[in-house]
């Protein structure tokens, strides 16, 4: 590591005297006592310096400048705990340094800015920003202009801002426009807005590479541009699962310093080709029903999810289906190993070497990745058949404030696999226990009717003899419906196979009572129990029931670094205005 001295001098912070030192990678200032002995040192990595300004400058909540000849202000990342074991809140630290002369002040600003360019080469210079003004509490514009734009201006990032006026406008723009000159794309909104950016960037990348997204056997080319997320929606699951907090300033600072977090993506296909991409949740059964029901109550705002979840639980539904999956290598990791995918995750790092062997530049990275396509779907598929409360596939923990550990606490962001969660039909109280454990630290998989598998691909189909009849019912019911009503289809309930073909392993046998749900609650909420559910794909209802999903390892990159371990961060004492800095 480079440690050459670039600049050193005496400075003042308020009335206290310090010795400031700038080396290649660190900017330190040490308080001195009256005998010039060291008292305490504050150290900020050059990579986490946001900007340097002449004079006394404030940025938030509003920009104020006092151009003083012998003062310069350094802005940097400072961390604070959120009260949780994982996830750190980032705020803008600010320290004003006084020096004996204007010449010395100019030397400091010049050297600090040069160090930023030298040791932070991956920082974005130009961004394309999409703002959803309708998402969440409709505060997207205010959040961007009051909190984010001033930070981007401080960091010298130029932005082209587009305020969307309709659904899929961002996706269509990315698919049609030339993105040359943009280092990344930022979405100000929720998970729906992120999904638009995701689909647009992946589609645009494959178009340029001449690859067909509808071909399941093709390994897609990783997107060269990063995605930044400024949370401003009803749900911000992707932001929470990759940063650990839902905070616009934290996310903006990750974008500014050029953090890079690879992310796995699932492509979801039906017989005719690609349907959608998914990163957080592909869910059939309970999660599909909750989404479909919530669409009927959008007037309730975010409360519609709690209401719909309660109603769907009381409906006590289960669905027949056949699940086939391609297991991942169990020697690499396990969904039950109780590890967390945190910043610097060793499992994801090893997966990068496995997915992109011998890649030293972007060209070889794509070449090595593309040449692997023929073997991605090879292996022995496992088949299970029965009645399920829910079938879920996730490429991340899918954690959120209400479920801090998420659907699959040990899922990894960038290991090229997904976690398949099967919840068999069971007694309502058993299913309630499964749901409740998502809000606590208890193992939701430690139940006899739940199993989880780390997989590379999943196929779902209806039992033989039921497909044609059930699809006829769906077509007949949806013919006279508008788009919103088609999202939820009720059909007459039928009995289905409960045969379980996979070996469940020791201690995983299920009794008939556990596999057969009790219908006594169904009459509370519905007169007819539907024979089929719908798929919830990252908050969107899929038009198909029978699907095949495949995981594409590290297909996109976010301006993030993964969730930081709060216990591993040591903080110094306050310097100014209560700021705490990483040592």
TrEMBL record:
<dbReference type="InterPro" id="IPR050187">
    <property type="entry name" value="Lipid_Phosphate_FormReg"/>
</dbReference>
<dbReference type="Pfam" id="PF25382">
    <property type="entry name" value="PH_CERK"/>
</dbReference>
<dbReference type="GO" id="GO:0001729">
    <property type="term" value="F:ceramide kinase activity"/>
</dbReference>
<dbReference type="InterPro" id="IPR016064">
    <property type="entry name" value="NAD/diacylglycerol_kinase_sf"/>
</dbReference>
<dbReference type="InterPro" id="IPR001206">
    <property type="entry name" value="Diacylglycerol_kinase_cat_dom"/>
</dbReference>
<feature type="domain" description="DAGKc">
    <location>
        <begin position="122"/>
        <end position="272"/>
    </location>
</feature>
<dbReference type="Pfam" id="PF19280">
    <property type="entry name" value="CERK_C"/>
</dbReference>
<protein>
    <recommendedName>
        <fullName>DAGKc domain-containing protein</fullName>
    </recommendedName>
</protein>
<dbReference type="InterPro" id="IPR057465">
    <property type="entry name" value="CERK_PH"/>
</dbReference>
<dbReference type="GO" id="GO:0006672">
    <property type="term" value="P:ceramide metabolic process"/>
</dbReference>
<dbReference type="GO" id="GO:0016020">
    <property type="term" value="C:membrane"/>
</dbReference>
<dbReference type="InterPro" id="IPR045363">
    <property type="entry name" value="CERK_C"/>
</dbReference>
<dbReference type="InterPro" id="IPR017438">
    <property type="entry name" value="ATP-NAD_kinase_N"/>
</dbReference>
<dbReference type="Pfam" id="PF00781">
    <property type="entry name" value="DAGK_cat"/>
</dbReference>
